[in-house]
Amino acid sequence: xxxxxxxxxxxxxxxxxxxxxxxxxxxxxxxxxxxxxxxxxxxxxxxxxxxxxxxxxxxxxxxxxxxxxxxxxxxxxxxxxxx
Length: 83
Prior knowledge:
It contains one helix and no strands. It is mainly α. 95% of the residues lie in helices and 0% in strands. It has one helix at 4-82.
């Protein structure tokens, strides 16, 4: 009759081989998830930049209109002063 070590060692080797394959699959999945996460973070960064650029543009446009309004008001004051 075979001793316990003759049954356990082959079983442990078999389990080790199965675990090695599972670890490889897990590593592949983690790599895929890391790439997806990096892509999402990149898109989020570009989205934030677009929002800040839009905000800056609206401030510039609003400021330009305010300057025009102020110039028009100044011209109206000058015209009123000439009356």
